[in-house]
Amino acid sequence: MSKNSDILVVKNMVCHRCVLSVQEILKSSGIPYHKILVGEIHLCSRLDDKGRENLKGKLGKIGLELIDSRTGEIIEKIKQLVIKKARNEVDDSERKIKLSTYLSSHLHQEYTSLSKLFSDTEGRTIENFSIMHRIEKAKELLVYGHLSLSQIALELDYSSVAHLSSQFKKVTGLTPSHFKEIGAAKRKTLDQI
User: Fold this and answer.
1) What is the pLDDT of residues 34-75, one digit of tens each?
2) pTM value?
3) Any residues with CB less than 8 A from the CB of 155 and at least 6 apart, and which?
Protein backbone atom coordinates (compact mmCIF):
# COMPACT_ATOMS: atom_id res chain seq x y z
CA MET A 1 0.00 0.00 0.00
CA SER A 2 1.14 3.53 -0.74
CA LYS A 3 2.64 5.67 2.01
CA ASN A 4 -0.02 8.23 1.13
CA SER A 5 -3.18 6.18 1.55
CA ASP A 6 -5.15 8.69 -0.52
CA ILE A 7 -3.01 8.06 -3.64
CA LEU A 8 -3.80 4.85 -5.52
CA VAL A 9 -1.46 3.49 -8.18
CA VAL A 10 -3.19 1.91 -11.19
CA LYS A 11 -1.59 -0.61 -13.54
CA ASN A 12 -2.19 -0.39 -17.32
CA MET A 13 -3.42 3.19 -17.10
CA VAL A 14 -1.43 4.56 -20.02
CA CYS A 15 -3.40 7.23 -21.83
CA HIS A 16 -5.86 10.09 -21.54
CA ARG A 17 -8.77 7.77 -22.42
CA CYS A 18 -7.88 5.67 -19.37
CA VAL A 19 -7.97 8.80 -17.21
CA LEU A 20 -11.43 9.66 -18.53
CA SER A 21 -12.67 6.10 -17.91
CA VAL A 22 -11.38 6.15 -14.33
CA GLN A 23 -12.93 9.58 -13.81
CA GLU A 24 -16.31 8.18 -14.91
CA ILE A 25 -15.97 5.18 -12.57
CA LEU A 26 -15.14 7.41 -9.61
CA LYS A 27 -18.03 9.78 -10.35
CA SER A 28 -20.56 6.95 -10.80
CA SER A 29 -19.30 5.30 -7.59
CA GLY A 30 -19.54 8.54 -5.62
CA ILE A 31 -15.83 8.47 -4.74
CA PRO A 32 -14.47 12.01 -4.28
CA TYR A 33 -11.05 12.70 -5.77
CA HIS A 34 -8.60 15.58 -6.13
CA LYS A 35 -7.14 14.59 -9.48
CA ILE A 36 -6.45 11.67 -11.78
CA LEU A 37 -3.10 11.32 -13.53
CA VAL A 38 -1.90 8.59 -15.85
CA GLY A 39 -1.20 5.75 -13.42
CA GLU A 40 -2.47 7.51 -10.27
CA ILE A 41 -5.72 8.40 -8.54
CA HIS A 42 -5.52 11.11 -5.87
CA LEU A 43 -8.52 10.60 -3.59
CA CYS A 44 -9.91 13.12 -1.12
CA SER A 45 -9.92 10.47 1.60
CA ARG A 46 -8.91 6.88 2.14
CA LEU A 47 -11.25 4.15 0.88
CA ASP A 48 -12.40 1.48 3.31
CA ASP A 49 -11.79 -2.18 2.35
CA LYS A 50 -15.26 -2.61 0.82
CA GLY A 51 -14.89 0.58 -1.25
CA ARG A 52 -11.43 -0.49 -2.38
CA GLU A 53 -12.66 -3.92 -3.47
CA ASN A 54 -15.59 -2.34 -5.32
CA LEU A 55 -13.22 0.04 -7.12
CA LYS A 56 -10.85 -2.86 -7.93
CA GLY A 57 -13.72 -4.75 -9.56
CA LYS A 58 -14.85 -1.80 -11.66
CA LEU A 59 -11.31 -1.01 -12.79
CA GLY A 60 -10.75 -4.68 -13.62
CA LYS A 61 -13.70 -4.60 -16.03
CA ILE A 62 -11.87 -2.04 -18.17
CA GLY A 63 -8.47 -3.76 -17.95
CA LEU A 64 -6.98 -1.68 -15.13
CA GLU A 65 -5.65 -2.94 -11.81
CA LEU A 66 -5.01 -1.35 -8.42
CA ILE A 67 -1.50 -2.02 -7.20
CA ASP A 68 -1.19 -2.99 -3.55
CA SER A 69 2.53 -3.54 -3.05
CA ARG A 70 5.39 -1.06 -2.80
CA THR A 71 7.32 -3.02 -5.44
CA GLY A 72 4.31 -2.95 -7.74
CA GLU A 73 3.98 0.79 -7.27
CA ILE A 74 7.64 1.39 -8.16
CA ILE A 75 7.42 -0.87 -11.23
CA GLU A 76 4.29 0.92 -12.42
CA LYS A 77 5.89 4.33 -11.89
CA ILE A 78 8.97 3.19 -13.85
CA LYS A 79 6.69 2.06 -16.68
CA GLN A 80 4.74 5.32 -16.75
CA LEU A 81 7.93 7.40 -16.79
CA VAL A 82 9.57 5.22 -19.46
CA ILE A 83 6.48 5.44 -21.67
CA LYS A 84 6.44 9.24 -21.38
CA LYS A 85 10.16 9.45 -22.16
CA ALA A 86 10.07 6.87 -24.98
CA ARG A 87 7.16 8.63 -26.65
CA ASN A 88 8.86 12.02 -26.12
CA GLU A 89 5.95 13.33 -24.06
CA VAL A 90 8.30 15.10 -21.64
CA ASP A 91 9.41 18.70 -21.20
CA ASP A 92 12.10 19.95 -23.57
CA SER A 93 14.52 20.09 -20.64
CA GLU A 94 14.07 16.32 -20.12
CA ARG A 95 14.24 15.23 -23.77
CA LYS A 96 18.04 14.94 -23.95
CA ILE A 97 18.56 13.54 -20.45
CA LYS A 98 19.62 9.91 -20.39
CA LEU A 99 16.85 7.51 -19.38
CA SER A 100 18.78 6.36 -16.31
CA THR A 101 19.18 9.94 -15.04
CA TYR A 102 15.55 10.75 -15.84
CA LEU A 103 14.25 7.77 -13.84
CA SER A 104 16.61 8.33 -10.91
CA SER A 105 15.65 11.97 -10.60
CA HIS A 106 11.91 11.28 -10.71
CA LEU A 107 11.95 8.27 -8.39
CA HIS A 108 14.76 9.45 -6.07
CA GLN A 109 16.58 6.10 -6.27
CA GLU A 110 19.77 4.86 -7.86
CA TYR A 111 19.22 3.60 -11.40
CA THR A 112 21.03 0.32 -10.70
CA SER A 113 18.47 -0.51 -7.98
CA LEU A 114 15.55 0.45 -10.20
CA SER A 115 16.98 -1.54 -13.11
CA LYS A 116 17.51 -4.68 -11.00
CA LEU A 117 14.03 -4.46 -9.47
CA PHE A 118 12.46 -3.99 -12.91
CA SER A 119 14.40 -6.87 -14.49
CA ASP A 120 13.71 -9.21 -11.57
CA THR A 121 10.00 -8.39 -11.60
CA GLU A 122 9.28 -7.99 -15.32
CA GLY A 123 11.77 -10.44 -16.83
CA ARG A 124 13.16 -7.80 -19.19
CA THR A 125 15.26 -4.68 -18.93
CA ILE A 126 14.10 -1.10 -18.67
CA GLU A 127 16.00 -0.43 -21.90
CA ASN A 128 14.08 -3.18 -23.72
CA PHE A 129 10.79 -1.80 -22.41
CA SER A 130 11.80 1.67 -23.61
CA ILE A 131 12.82 0.44 -27.06
CA MET A 132 9.51 -1.37 -27.48
CA HIS A 133 7.61 1.83 -26.71
CA ARG A 134 9.79 3.97 -28.97
CA ILE A 135 9.19 1.55 -31.83
CA GLU A 136 5.46 1.50 -31.12
CA LYS A 137 5.43 5.31 -31.31
CA ALA A 138 7.38 5.10 -34.58
CA LYS A 139 4.72 2.69 -35.89
CA GLU A 140 2.01 5.15 -34.90
CA LEU A 141 3.77 8.00 -36.69
CA LEU A 142 4.36 5.85 -39.79
CA VAL A 143 0.70 4.86 -39.96
CA TYR A 144 -0.42 8.50 -39.67
CA GLY A 145 1.87 9.31 -42.59
CA HIS A 146 2.36 12.98 -41.69
CA LEU A 147 6.10 12.74 -41.01
CA SER A 148 9.01 11.44 -43.04
CA LEU A 149 11.28 8.77 -41.57
CA SER A 150 13.90 11.48 -40.94
CA GLN A 151 11.35 13.54 -39.01
CA ILE A 152 10.27 10.48 -37.01
CA ALA A 153 13.90 9.71 -36.11
CA LEU A 154 14.33 13.30 -34.96
CA GLU A 155 11.02 13.28 -33.04
CA LEU A 156 11.99 10.12 -31.15
CA ASP A 157 15.59 11.24 -30.49
CA TYR A 158 17.30 8.61 -32.62
CA SER A 159 20.84 9.51 -33.63
CA SER A 160 20.04 8.78 -37.29
CA VAL A 161 17.49 7.29 -39.66
CA ALA A 162 19.77 4.26 -39.96
CA HIS A 163 19.67 3.72 -36.18
CA LEU A 164 15.85 3.94 -36.13
CA SER A 165 15.55 1.64 -39.16
CA SER A 166 17.93 -0.92 -37.65
CA GLN A 167 16.13 -0.98 -34.30
CA PHE A 168 12.73 -1.02 -36.04
CA LYS A 169 13.70 -4.05 -38.13
CA LYS A 170 15.20 -5.84 -35.11
CA VAL A 171 11.95 -5.40 -33.12
CA THR A 172 9.33 -5.87 -35.86
CA GLY A 173 11.14 -7.95 -38.47
CA LEU A 174 10.14 -5.33 -41.05
CA THR A 175 11.72 -2.22 -42.49
CA PRO A 176 9.85 0.99 -41.68
CA SER A 177 8.83 1.38 -45.35
CA HIS A 178 7.45 -2.18 -45.51
CA PHE A 179 5.62 -1.61 -42.24
CA LYS A 180 4.10 1.57 -43.65
CA GLU A 181 2.77 -0.44 -46.60
CA ILE A 182 0.97 -2.95 -44.37
CA GLY A 183 -0.04 -0.30 -41.84
CA ALA A 184 -2.02 -0.52 -38.65
CA ALA A 185 -2.48 -4.30 -38.69
CA LYS A 186 0.90 -4.66 -36.98
CA ARG A 187 0.29 -2.08 -34.22
CA LYS A 188 -0.13 -3.10 -30.57
CA THR A 189 -2.04 -1.41 -27.81
CA LEU A 190 0.24 0.10 -25.14
CA ASP A 191 -0.69 -2.49 -22.52
CA GLN A 192 0.36 -5.32 -24.87
CA ILE A 193 3.96 -4.08 -25.10
Assistant:
1) 999 888 899 998 888 899 899 999 999 999 988 877 888 899
2) 0.71
3) 88, 141, 147
